[in-house]
Amino acid sequence: MSKGASSTSTPNAHRGRNLFRATGITLGWFLGFIGVSALCGALVAGLMVPAAALAETAVTGSTAALSTNLPKDVFAAPPAQMTRVLAADGSQIATLFSENRTRITLDQMSPNIKNAIVAIEDYRFYQHGGIDPAGILRAAMIDAAGGHQGASTLTQQYVTNMLNENLIAQGKDAQVVLNGQKSMNKKIQEMKLAIGLEEQYSKDQILAGYLNVVGFNANAYGIQAASQYFFSVDAKDLTLPQAALLAGLVNGPSLYDPTVHPEASKSRRDLVLDAMLEHGYIDQRQHDDAVNTPIQLKLNPPKQGCAYASQAQYFCDYVLHQIENDPSYGATQDERDQKIMAGGLTIKTTLDPRLEGPAQTQVDATTGANPDKWGTSLVTIEPGTGKVLAMAQNSRKLPGEGTGFVSDYNFNVDSADAAGNSLGGVGGMQPGSTMKPVTLAAWLGEGKSTNQVVDASRRRYGINYPWKTTCHPVQGWFDSTVPQSADLQNDEPNWYRPMTVREGIYQSINTATFASLAGLNDVCDVQRAADAIGLHLGSGKDEKIDLSTLGNILGSQNVAPLTMANAFATFAANGTYCAPMSITEVDDAQGNKIGGQTSSCQAGALKPDVAKAVTNVLQDVLTKGSGLLIPQKLGVPDAAKTGTNEWNNQTWVVGYTKGLATASFFGDPFNGGPGRLGRNVTINGKFYPAVDGAFIAGPQWAQYMQAAVGLYDHGNFDAPPQNLISGPSDQRGKTTSPSAGR
């Protein structure tokens, strides 16, 4: 072929290719127009139905085309919102969420974010009726030419987000379909819902709904959470550059994340500002100033869960457990967990920060740095209501906090009281001699007096001892003549003698308690007294403590501090037992009350005069008995009992005023066995040959109560009847100096 031929054929070939490309583009535009016209025609035909019928279809899924099985309130509020746990004064304890979201109203959003999101996502938002045919045609033409252009309106995006959120809320995450994977039927279905939505709601309602549901980041859903996460400000205070940056994120939260891709984020922000200028939301000067503003983040990552509670980590867990195990919040535990993590609940509790702060300070101070990981705890109940006012321990859920002692276990509650994936309570500890007032209550319940003398010299109760019982045989014995047994022991050798029941309690003499037990008309009255004041095993409230076994009379079974505090609160309330309560109200995301606990009290669970007489004796513990060794004094009427287990590694003081009952614990909350003795130990710089309840748990109780006592009733206790103090035939025992009794 000649050069001339070649030179003339090349332009024609180029011309042919250009013509083919131009024809292709034109054909693409034409086909796109035909396709969009057909689609719009189909939509017009399919959507020319009464608005009410469409709304019903969208809600109920009554036709095959719109079968979605959506809950009726699908568009009423974002399904996943932050749950807040609050103290009694309204201060925040913790937040919980599966998606960090806080719903707000449109007037709580800066005009900058409203204008920015409309300008970049759907500038014809206020002109269309849910779908934008012009936008669909424009997108089709661009797509046909080889580009990419989205055509979803804000209303369609809102529908998509809400449908996906509802699937997630129902645990159907696998059914969520991304935009690029949707079928034509799915797209048409969502278009129909968008038009139906516009029929039911105003533009402002739709815009507010969209801004509350859309994701800006894995840590921030909705504009309020995004504002707080990226800038530590509320949505109403967003500046123009801040709002433009957030508006740019919704198109690609990962792609435009300013913490990972700052340059891409700024380019996208400036594109939003260009759109705002183009559509008249800002003027040139505002645009230029914003473009010239560097990205200035002030990150505020959300910290959710009880481990990040601002106060009372373990009380927070305890509260969640109350909801998690309550069928009124959902038929299954999964439903209840979903409600907690995504329901936007407001959980109002009984916690009093005025007490919680001093309690936490005190348990931390008791052991100091604590390399040996000795446990300390305090829990306070309000007598007459059962309200849990404070719950503290010296461990933390996360490393690097407090004493450096990390544990998921709650020292104060039953092992059954777990929340979420928490390991729950340790299952209680051995209360030792803090159980002795139960036998005293049984004694008084039979009309016997505190000043009656019993034979505390007796140490042997053999296999065939004639216990008086009407309910069950008494198990066990103390008898050194029997192999693998021993006679009953006191903590010190000089207390094996006759003494009053009162002295036996305030000096904490084991043989005196057993002499009282032997003097009962019915040993079963001890079990009845324990049941009346709510004592149960640390495994859970349905596990009754067993006082038919002699060893358990002296506190060898594990009981949780919360249970002990509440039992002594029954004494303080003159025999009125109240079940512990921690939640006053639970509101849903719309502010409707859906739950809560009320005081559940039983007046006369223990005879009032019996409770008054027990208190009268326990006051002597602090003035002339084992509690006299506690150097700190409250200066108001108070009563208490010390307790120490066999190995000196679980020690207690449980005490009360008229308005507060507190259990104080020091020791090994996990084991308590002979492998870790509370002897020859140094605690917070002080050496102890043997730890007794009055030595560490006692000062902890007193110092904390000094800070708390003035906030609640601290008046005089009611006087018991004289016949329960000094019966007609009582003989007086000799009073001696206080012992370090158990």
The portion of residues assigned to helices is 25-40%
Number of DSSP-assigned strands = 18
Radius of gyration: 36 Å
CATH-level-2 architecture of the domain at 16-78 and 109-213? Orthogonal Bundle
Can you identify the CATH class of the domain at 16-78 and 109-213?
Answer: Mainly Alpha
Count of alpha and pi helical runs: 21
Helix-strand category = alpha+beta
**Overall pLDDT confidence:** 86
| Shape verdict | elongated
Which sheet architecture does the biggest sheet show?
5 strands, mixed
Q: Which segments are poorly predicted (pLDDT under 50) over 5 or more consecutive residues?
A: 1-71, 731-741
Please list the strands of the largest sheet in the order they lie side by side. Answer: 2-1-5-11-12
- The name CATH uses for the topology of the domain at 16-78 and 109-213 is Penicillin binding protein transpeptidase fold
Fraction in beta strands: 5-15%
Distance between the termini: 118 Å
Region (Disordered): 720-742
Pfam family, one: Transgly
Biased composition (Polar residues): 723-742
GO molecular function: carboxypeptidase activity
